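Narrative summary of target 7.
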Amino acid sequence: MKKGETRELKVCHDMEGIRGVEIEPVSREEAWKLFHEQVGGSIDLPSIKHFARGLVERCCGDLVQRLKFSFDRLKYRSLKSCFLYCALFSEDQEINADEFIESCIQEGLIAAYATGYDIVEALLHALFLETTDNGRSIRIRDVMRDLALGILSSDTEGRQLPLPTYSKPLKPEIVTSSTRLSVADGYQFLLKAAAGLTEPPTGEEYEQSKMMFLMDNKLSTLPENPSCSGLETLFLQRNSQLIVVPDHFFDMPFLKVLNLSKTGIKYLPKSISNLRILETLILRDCKRLDKLPSEVGCLKLLQVLNLRGTDIMELPLEIANLKSLNHLEVSFYGSSTDSEHVKLPRKLISSLQA
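Modeled conformation, tokenized:
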């Protein structure tokens, strides 16, 4: 199977499961070459080439539209989440299948290895993924990557983000003839999951990105004051060498989702208060984190706070100001009973019960 191939496919769902029907592969460059041969050299003229390229891209876009129907028909959310998660790795990156399943478990997308193997097999059978390295590794197909990024970029409410089961429920989609799926102009993804990074992205990459996926790397530092005026999603989980978040790092007025799980951070800087529209904060298994700053009370739109597996013994009183909070996970070390609520602020308990 050649690198960069795409396949048009139809995914059928019935009581038996998922079935893929494969049609001859055509990559973007192959499509352009074929178009060039049929039309002639005139399409290389500066006044024409841009429009000709656009026409070829539109044909590829029509294929993505059809594949979106197949994605919507996937029966289980775990199938959708694992497929989208696979798209967060670097382009053409081969991912060891066992490691991919382990990552999905750590993310909370699935609960067991057996489920993970079934999901990978289903996605391979449906041609959403392809195998490499004699079946030991997987890679997302180019056109499927386009599909995944189109889904993520058009999901303004964050319902399709590959997050654990406490994420927002999916809404049934009303599809019309005018419904289009594409990555919006200027929409930038930085997809560097498990890319072996030891240095953080450049300032320009922070400035241009709306979604940054940097999990499973070897980052030990972050920029002091990055320009992130448009950043909406930041995944930094499992960068175990990351010990400190700089004091002015969180100048991110539009950030909605922040995942710092399994990093080595011991505290959050006070600039966390700048994240005024943050909706999801995941700090699971940050084992050195022993305190939340009082500034967390400024996160008025926060809906999900996961502190399970941290070293936090007590929450600040200001957490009771989180009126939008509907999902809190916390485990206090040293508790001798299941009544861990005694260490929660009384006002918070009242607001959650209300």
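The longest strand covers residues 9-14.
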